[in-house]
Amino acid sequence: MQVQVRHQPSFAVARCLLAAGEPLRVESGAMLATSWGVQVEASMQGGLLKGLRRAALGGESLFVTTYMAPEGGGWVDVAAHLPGDISVVTVTPERAFYVTRGCWIANAYGVELQTQWGGAQNLFGGEGGFVMQATGQGEVVLGAYGAVDTVDLAADEAVTVDTGHVVAYDAGVQSRLRRAVEG
Questions:
Q1: Measuring CA to CA, which of 151, 164, 166, 177 is 20 to 30 A from 130?
Q2: Residue 113 bridge partners (DSSP)
């Protein structure tokens, strides 16, 4: 899958270009348009319990839609539910990501998403405590209300980011909770 992001930064749309027979997983309601011949199937990926866990804990919908490109290939346009920016991250077996509540839009079929406890920093920061871990191989399309800024950290470098503004982070990033206001 190749992804072309258009209309940034305020009303971003990701066009996911698919090879013949290639599938794409998409958050329910995130598809804007598809090329002719793309097949559609909605299901509770992983069954009822996994779907409920993803919906209740991960902030995503109960159903996931799978799009399959026809023989000649095709495309699927996706966007977040609210206006804002889109970012694409590449997951590899050596580089997993954590995606925060409500930011997942779509992913290549080689990427697996699992709802996991994200730590107290997410719970006390008002984000619900759970994140989605993206593992495997392929691209993940992420969206946010507003702009998306990428921060590349050098070894031993630290930044402070409010939990409500984190879209995703590399599994190797460590975090800690601290009070933002003194007094």
A1: 151
A2: 134
